Amino acid sequence: MIKNSTHLSTLNNLVYLGCIATLFATMFDSSIARSTLLFSSVMALLAIIFQFNEFKAKKDTWLLPIAILALGIANLAWVAVYKQPETAYSHVYRAYSDVGKILIMASFIFLFALNKSISNNNILKALSITVLVLQLILAGTAFYQSFYLGAPRIELFFKTATGGAYVLSVISLLALQASLLIGGKYKYALYIISFIIGFVAILLTQTRAAILVFPIISILLFINELRKEQRSIKTTLALLCVLFIASLFIFSSIIEKRTNQLLKDIRLYSQSNSHSSIGGRFAMGAVGIQSGQQALMGQSVEQRAEKIKALIKENPTYSGAQGALNVHMHNDLIDNFSLKGIWGALLVAFIYLSLIYTAFRVTHSVFLFAMTCSVILYGFSDIIFFAKDTPTVCIMSLIACILLNYKNKKQSINNKLES
């Protein structure tokens, strides 16, 4: 049994370092990221066991880890019950199996992070710098793919532009938090630079949800930070807004193109044509809900596919959902409801509510709330808890956000780092 405080400190530091390694590896090699995530999870579990009395005393920190663990176990249970040896829908079962394992491993790290803030300033600096470097790497890759390779929509290291945009968004939010943490007297300048880099890169993905959500959340966070410190906000806020508007003007062709496409998709759907990005999402949402209503306690992917095919035959307006039968319904709540029934949707909602509760009542972190809003909104327009890459990045970003939080410290971390 580890009792020596030095050994416990070393164990805790191993969890932090494992989290940093996992966050970095998720961008480049999913197999390495899975290994470092497993390492971090095991170290976190050991830290919890050896310091259990301390963890047990803080009951409000258990809600979010329990919610994440519950969905992870539920995913594995659903796969075990419904997956057949020979199936044409193996991709969906594998995706939910993968994310189930990720959630189970992450649940122990969440519990650890909510109870053990980083006390080593060097590790805190390392995490902050890692986040900022990751944003630069992602943005640099976005600029390279767009301006040098001529990609119409950049995907970064992921399979879709949408996935790349969501990853850029959460990493950029983390970079904003890190900017305020280690920027010292230049923190506002670093915040603005980080915001512009992230927003321009997101624009290159042409993902409407991220283009809308990221700047709104970032500007609100900035206003809150300035208000909290009771400083004059006019000049600094004006500069941020000017640069934001300049970015919109420079990339106005992208915004105009995506806006026109949105209006076209809505018009097509009103004409019973769902073969478009927005129309397909409407169709997937409709058939996902209707197929779930016919199997409130859950069903297999094969059973869902048959129900959806019948719905499409009955109402051809839904035909745009045909291509999603071997993937997902582009909505976390609806996809889980369509496969796992009421309990699947409730478990996803449980995670959302637990994140909000944790942000307000446990960490008192406006950044965790902002990150939560991003995950929820992106989970409505696409899907987060599916497969490996995107959920790993989002989960590790939430954990990093908790570790970077400094709301409850008695003195500013900026002062600590500068001393």
Account of the 3D structure:
With about 425 residues, the chain is mostly helical. Among the domains are: about 1-55; about 60-110 and about 275-385, no CATH class. The protein is built from 17 helices and no strands. Helix 5 (about 90-115) runs parallel beside helix 16 and helix 6 (about 120-150) runs parallel beside helix 8.
Question: Characteristics of this structure?
Answer:
mainly alpha; 419 residues; single chain
Structural topology:
Blueprint: H1 5-25, H2 30-50, H3 52-57, H4 63-82, H5 90-115, H6 121-148, H7 161-182, H8 187-205, H9 208-228, H10 234-250, H11 252-270, H12 277-293, H13 301-314, H14 332-362, H15 366-381, H16 389-404, H17 413-418
Count of helices? 17
Helix and strand element order: HHHHHHHHHHHHHHHHH
| Unreliable residue runs | 407-419
Instruction: Look at the structure and give the mean pLDDT.
Output: 89
Radius of gyration: 22 Å
Strand content: under 5%
Helicity, as a percent range = over 70%
Task: Tell the overall outline.
Answer: globular
* Structural category: mainly alpha
Q: In whole angstroms, how far apart are the ends?
A: 36 Å
The tally of beta strands, per DSSP, is 0
Q: Main beta sheet, described?
A: none
